[in-house]
């Protein structure tokens, strides 16, 4: 457990919103931390703002603006799944030293010039209609993603997921090394499912002295299936 009040910004994955992290955020707040779970433009309660202009750069700006306008310092920045893309680029927009720790939870970790579609195995995320810009959320019952949910939970989850601009998945990250200057860097791999997407990331980072790599024996939706354990892991990365 952390022994001091921390400032934590948690960024959700694709097709959802800040609501997806409410239970973990509430637990961290109960423990005395200052927690933000911003919803990225065009998603969740901000779905009415979607447009073809919504892309990775805009989502990175969403995060940087929370930090700027809330006047946050000594930040622990957390990203889950797709959230690893915009938190990576957001490090380029925030003054050096503001983000003291960064935590990727079963998340994409791009290098400069890589898009999410470059990193995802299998079929890229693209619109069903080539004349459209919106990528619908997958509706399949996928092992490791929503197979763990009760029918009621799954219905609520599906009802609140929203299509997402393809440009979030196709825009290349523009990184110049700001992320690497962050003093504490942690990567968490979920090992409770066949994790072909993120296991190679964890394997590569284990060879680096400047990254801490941890495992959680759960499925990808850590914030849903392991609320307390996710809060504990986030606390472990407090700067």
Report on this model:
This protein has 239 residues and is an alpha/beta fold. The protein has one domain (7-236): Rossmann fold (3-Layer(aba) Sandwich). Helices cover 29% and strands 15% of the residues. The chain contains nine helices and eight strands. The strands form two sheets. A six-stranded parallel sheet has the order 2-1-3-4-7-8, sandwiched between helices. Strands 5-6 form a two-stranded antiparallel sheet. It is globular. The two termini are 12 Å apart. The mean pLDDT is 93. Keywords: Hydrolase. It is an enzyme of class 3 (hydrolase). GO terms for molecular function: trans-permethrin hydrolase activity.
Helix content: 25-40%
Q: Could you please say which CATH topology applies here?
A: Rossmann fold
Strand order of the largest sheet: 2-1-3-4-7-8
What's the CATH class, please?
Alpha Beta
Instruction: Spell the H/E element sequence.
Output: EHEHEHEHEHEHEHEHH
CATH architecture annotation name: 3-Layer(aba) Sandwich
Number of domains: 1
Structural class: alpha/beta
Distance between the termini: 12 Å
Biggest beta sheet attributes: 6 strands, parallel
